[in-house]
Amino acid sequence: MSLLDRLADAHIQNAIDAGEMDDLPGQGRPLPPDDARHVPAELRAGYRLLKNAGFVPPEIATHRELREVEVLLNQAVPASEHAERLTRRARWIETRLASSRAGRALLADRHYGDAIRRQLAGRRDNDD
After folding, report:
1. What letter does residue 78 receive in the DSSP assignment?
2. Is residue 27 part of a domain?
């Protein structure tokens, strides 16, 4: 344990002993589920920082774009010029994703990749 960790623990313990932690909002209730629970531990702080700043990784933005094109394609009249353009665009986006080393690495982790895919599909991960 580092010196900083020990100092933080000492300050927390002093606050508990002084009663400063009594009557905190949510006391005695479980913590809400962690949105970053599927992100590898060594990357969580960075991902939270980026998320709080409103940053979306390019690979995730590209996946969202692909889902939007797929929705439009499902609504398009089959065999129309519009459907043809959307199909070409979807193929181009898929090619971009397949060639993205970062995208493959990010989504390669089974738990994290599955959680991202569920989020992109509009479903929440309620089983954890």
Report:
1. T
2. no
Question: 49: which 2 tokens?
Answer: 């920082």
Supply the DSSP symbol for 53: T
pTM: 0.45
Spatial neighbors of 115 by CB under 8 A, at least 6 apart, are 38, 125
Closest CA relative to residue 126, chosen from 35, 30, 31, 26: 35
Q: Does residue 25 belong to any structural domain of this protein?
A: no
Report which residue type is found at 50: L
Tokens at residue 117, please? 């895919």
In a domain, 78, yes or no: yes
* 27: its two tokens: 């006391």
Segment 4-44, tens digit of pLDDT: 889 999 999 999 999 998 888 888 888 888 777 777 888 88
